[in-house]
Amino acid sequence: MKLKKYLVRALHRLQKGPGYTYKELLVWYCDNTNTHGPKRIIKEGPKKKLIWFFLTLLFASLVFWQWGILINTYLSYNVTSSLSIGFKTMKFPAVTVCNANPFKYSEVKPLLKELDRLIEAALERILQPENSSDTVSPPLDLELWNQIPLVLIDEQDKDNPVILDIFETNQTAVGNERGMDNETRKKYKLAVKLCSHPGSENCTYRNFSSAAQAVTEWYVLQSTSILSKVPLHDRIRMGYQAEDMILACLYGAEPCNYKNFTQIYHPDHGNCYIFNWGMDEEALNSSNPGAEFGLKLILDISQQDYIPYLSSAAGARLMLHQQKSFPFLKDQGIYAMAGTETSIGVLVDELERMGYPYSDCTMNGSDVPVKNLYSQYNTSYSIQACLRSCFQNHMVEICGCGHYMFPLPEGVNYCNNEDYPGWAYCYSLLRSSIKQRQICIDSCKETCNDTQYKMTISMADWPSEASEDWIFHILSYERDMSTNVTLDRNGVIKLNIYFQEYNYHTISESAATTIVWLLSSLGGQFGFWMGGSVLCLVEFGEIIIDSLWITIIHLISWCKGLQQRRARARYPDVPPTVSELVEAHTNLGFQHETGLVEAHTNLGFQHEAGGAGPGAQALPPEPGTPPPNYDSLRVQPLDTLSPDSDTD
Amino acid sequence: AATAPGKKITARLKRTLPVRGPQAPTLSELMRWYCLNTNTHGCRRIVVSRGRLRRLLWILLTLSAVGLILWQCAELLMNYYSASVSVTVQFQKLTFPAVTICNINPYKYSAMKEYLSELDKETKKALETFYGFSEGKSKVRRSVDDWNGTGSDFFQQIPLLKVEDFSRTATELHSGQKRRVEGSVFHKDSSIVNSGDSNDIIGFQLCDANNSSECALYTFSSGVNAIQEWYKLHYMNIMAQIPLETKEKLSYSADDLILTCFFDGLSCDKRHFTRFHHPLHGNCYTFNSGENGTILSTSTGGSEYGLHVVLYIDEADYNPFLVTSTGAKIIVHDQDEYPFIEDIGTEIETAAVTSIGMHFTRSRKLSKPYSDCTETGADIPVENLYNKSYSLQICLHSCFQKAMVDSCGCAQYAQPLPPGAEYCNYKKNPNWMYCYYRLHEKFVKEQLGCQQICKDACSFKEWALTTSIAQWPSIVSEDWMLRVLSWDKGQKLNKKLNKTDLVNLMVFYKDLNERFISENPTNTLVILLSNFGGQLGLWMSCSVVCVIEIVEVFLIDSLSIVLRRQWQKAKKWWSHRQRARAGKAPQGSDPERQGHDNPTPVSIDEDLPTFTTALRLPLPQDSPLPRTPPPNYSTLHLDTAFTEQLPDTLELGQH
């Protein structure tokens, strides 16, 4: 009882006006709301009332539908891109220069001597089978050969190809072959035989359509195995030294020399040198376009000292990349040809993206589930680094050793033929596995800020015939302090790297839909259809709270009624309790009103022509003495419309 | 009782939803009512304000707010069709594009001998006569002796001329006679002739075969261009007469051209290439053309995982007049795109490795009404002669070919044949060259209308190429490399390949980032409506409800008031007339004079009054009994929730 009293009081305080029934509340709401539709419903004639009722419903549903669309749009996190082009002072890109050949042949010759003899002998047999047996040479070390042999495959009969080992079965095979003419000999293909263990049956043959490819591939596999055993500092020593390779350097008007370059060991290309890497000192800025203000380099690649079977292309490999990023020359590198001057105009193409949730990219790679092996170079995350690390991790997992081309995880060795005899087989399976690649693609994410250096490359012959003599003379003198000319056209390369007139092209993203946008669009929709605002929503909420109150009160009084009836059944004449009396009193003011409003609305809905207007309400329809009993006005509703009776 | 149920329903509807006229009897009343009850701000101020100045100010403010709304909404509507650009980058497995590779020289010169020997002889003669050039000393005399003996077809049809510019006379090469140049002179090299230069200009004359007085003289500032152009004209004539099968045999086979092939770390061979016959470049080979249903893709970037081919371009077998450069030509394109290798191909040097790094960009424009592009080309009135998907280039070429067939009666050799047409040659169409040059002139000057008809495609794929070159093979590897490649070629070992016969080419993805540039509509209908709502709300707190109100009040209600008034006038006039006839003075009350106190609708309509109208109803006049005034307790109840509403209605009632 106390609770109910409290609730009623609270309601009383909370709302002075809306009334005690749902209908009353609704009418009050329609009349007093700031939304445009509902007012019309109660203020118009019957036909218009119906029209307005449906219009309001229609508009309300329109508003909700469109709000749904707007919120969906917001949650899709669209972005708009803005593009800016122009020239500004920018960090000059880091420039990595390498020789296409990783090591000086004169230095690595002792290591590769056996291998070279093997391949020469093999080529001799393949190319001139007729007189191969005649050549007398020191006995070959066939141990290397047997680890990964090259074989000839005759694929004339598709179902059972004839496989000929070049060295072992040469007597019989070549003997059979002798009678054949060139036409049939053409059908032979070279293949590399890869076995999981030496002598095991579990072998695959990697076929090649061309012998040149087969020889190169074979040589790479073998030399990788040999070189992986050589410690790093020896490998660095065998490569090209900065003072031999970088002959002249000029940045803008300032002279620079090989000491301005950072050395890095690159498995593909041996020693590489990076200008302006930004690891130790601040990156250089360039504030002027044009070749005059760029980097000018003269390199010597000494083509005579190339390893003949390892790299058939001669030139310098160079790459422009961001500071503190690892140069992936095989992906993004370009060649520069010997005996030419290569001019490279640079345009920085930047893409700045918003991170999650706008796009699925990573800011610094910390949220990528692949261990970045290139972090040992102190370089930043990139997708290439991630893919290679992913491959190397798989390789270590499956083959038990790391591939020579990629950095090593801790506690793992590089693969070589002695310790891991099946590595080449394992590697070739892994490399051609589509599944492995897909796993890596799925687990690596691209970086949010993607910078590319777009290059406009042009070439001219350098040095010119007229200037050739003195240029070579000076460069040789500077390098070796001797008057002998040690350079020639096949070795020197001139490079000019500079910013173009427009040096940046930046696409930056911004959110297309912000919370401000969402609110103003929501407001616009609500305002457009119904003239509503947030306050209208608050009003609506208020009404819902009110109706909840009403429900609660009805429930309570219904419960009370039930109790009373039970009590009455036991004691038919129970005097009203104090709380009941109080309740009745507190309710009175409202009760009467209810009656009034009911009358009004009834009038409005039923069109009782006789009882119209407040005056008519006060007057009883039948003639007679006016009702003298003023209290009756109050008592009457108590009888008919008390909460108790409502629930009955 | 026997009324139809339909009628019953309508009767019921009429009863429950009666039609009633407007709330106010006069227009000014209506306006007042509207201003007081409307949901828009401003109008109410006009009515409520006291003083003329204030009222005027409010009228002005309201009107300017309306004006502003109209202006802003018009702006919003006009900017509806604008697009915003979004760039997305996706790292994924990319499909490898089709790579079409051609030898620059279209046909083996040795095989073409029987078709071209006459033409070559003539060309050599021309070179000798004009420039004193001769290949071998011994041949010179003989060829000059032969000169007058054999009738030279080629010079008779299109004579090469030496033109002296000032006198406008030309020396004919064949007969050596001078003659005046008639007709117009076209300079192919430049539009301005260096008049100070006394050098002779070489060119050729094309005449209309039907009307020989109409001639056009094409001149070139350099003999190199003139000879090549002239040679090409004749060459095309000859080639047009050779059937396609023969031409394919005359050109290079896949075995001839492709020495080694390597893709994605695996070996590939000629089966991965599709032959494609190009009229100017002979047999070209497309890698990954997707013809057998599978399109290769790469899941790793970098030079090791792309396409790596070594081509054998037999330099010794080149046609000396047709092509003057050596090497191969490649183009990277989409599988369903036509390779316009003559237009946008990249030339590849011999004795070098060319590394081509690709970067993939896909673009998409919005079609109509955002921009004038076409999705499929189906809406372009030009028939697509190429068996590939639409592109601007295809449209232009097809359009020109169509114009060519229409006006010259035969098709140009470099483009595909439309159905029912055949390629031009002298024998059948002696006039075609003149016609072709005329038409081409028009085409270049945009007089054929092709450039207007053809639209660009809405979506396109682009592979940006970064090309760099290194020497190949290196000095130390040259020896074994050439030997092994010769073995591959299956040639006799004594004949080693020359490195200038070889082209080494690498095509690979630099990275697997696909850049997708797309246009999106900035505005959707939802956003447009939101913006309208914002504008309406900002200036007048208006909504669609207000618009409906305005329509209701200003169109329907005021119209019905006007009509009603007219009707009453007519009625009055009619009754006057009748009364005049009857000679009786008018009696009774004019319903209009009663105003709102006794609104006409109530008396006219059968409607039952609503609550609001009922409030305004006067007390029944014919109340027979005098009553005590009702006790005024009800005023107590007026201070409740309805206080806001009641004064309004009461106010109305008092007017």
TrEMBL record, chain A:
<feature type="compositionally biased region" description="Pro residues">
    <location>
        <begin position="620"/>
        <end position="629"/>
    </location>
</feature>
<keyword id="KW-1015">Disulfide bond</keyword>
<keyword id="KW-0407">Ion channel</keyword>
<keyword id="KW-0813">Transport</keyword>
<dbReference type="GO" id="GO:0034706">
    <property type="term" value="C:sodium channel complex"/>
</dbReference>
<dbReference type="Pfam" id="PF00858">
    <property type="entry name" value="ASC"/>
</dbReference>
<dbReference type="InterPro" id="IPR020903">
    <property type="entry name" value="ENaC_CS"/>
</dbReference>
<keyword id="KW-0406">Ion transport</keyword>
<keyword id="KW-0739">Sodium transport</keyword>
<feature type="transmembrane region" description="Helical">
    <location>
        <begin position="50"/>
        <end position="75"/>
    </location>
</feature>
<dbReference type="GO" id="GO:0030659">
    <property type="term" value="C:cytoplasmic vesicle membrane"/>
</dbReference>
<dbReference type="InterPro" id="IPR001873">
    <property type="entry name" value="ENaC"/>
</dbReference>
<keyword id="KW-1003">Cell membrane</keyword>
<keyword id="KW-0472">Membrane</keyword>
<keyword id="KW-0894">Sodium channel</keyword>
<keyword id="KW-0812">Transmembrane</keyword>
<dbReference type="GO" id="GO:0016324">
    <property type="term" value="C:apical plasma membrane"/>
</dbReference>
<keyword id="KW-0968">Cytoplasmic vesicle</keyword>
<feature type="region of interest" description="Disordered">
    <location>
        <begin position="607"/>
        <end position="648"/>
    </location>
</feature>
<keyword id="KW-0915">Sodium</keyword>
<keyword id="KW-1133">Transmembrane helix</keyword>
<comment type="similarity">
    <text>Belongs to the amiloride-sensitive sodium channel (TC 1.A.6) family. SCNN1B subfamily.</text>
</comment>
Automatic annotation (TrEMBL), chain B:
<keyword id="KW-0812">Transmembrane</keyword>
<dbReference type="InterPro" id="IPR001873">
    <property type="entry name" value="ENaC"/>
</dbReference>
<feature type="compositionally biased region" description="Pro residues">
    <location>
        <begin position="621"/>
        <end position="632"/>
    </location>
</feature>
<dbReference type="GO" id="GO:0015280">
    <property type="term" value="F:ligand-gated sodium channel activity"/>
</dbReference>
<keyword id="KW-0813">Transport</keyword>
<keyword id="KW-0894">Sodium channel</keyword>
<keyword id="KW-0406">Ion transport</keyword>
<keyword id="KW-1015">Disulfide bond</keyword>
<dbReference type="Pfam" id="PF00858">
    <property type="entry name" value="ASC"/>
</dbReference>
<protein>
    <submittedName>
        <fullName>SCNNG protein</fullName>
    </submittedName>
</protein>
<comment type="similarity">
    <text>Belongs to the amiloride-sensitive sodium channel (TC 1.A.6) family. SCNN1G subfamily.</text>
</comment>
<dbReference type="InterPro" id="IPR020903">
    <property type="entry name" value="ENaC_CS"/>
</dbReference>
<keyword id="KW-1003">Cell membrane</keyword>
<dbReference type="InterPro" id="IPR004724">
    <property type="entry name" value="ENaC_chordates"/>
</dbReference>
<keyword id="KW-1133">Transmembrane helix</keyword>
<dbReference type="GO" id="GO:0034706">
    <property type="term" value="C:sodium channel complex"/>
</dbReference>
<keyword id="KW-0407">Ion channel</keyword>
<keyword id="KW-0739">Sodium transport</keyword>
<keyword id="KW-0915">Sodium</keyword>
<feature type="transmembrane region" description="Helical">
    <location>
        <begin position="56"/>
        <end position="81"/>
    </location>
</feature>
<keyword id="KW-0472">Membrane</keyword>
<dbReference type="GO" id="GO:0016324">
    <property type="term" value="C:apical plasma membrane"/>
</dbReference>
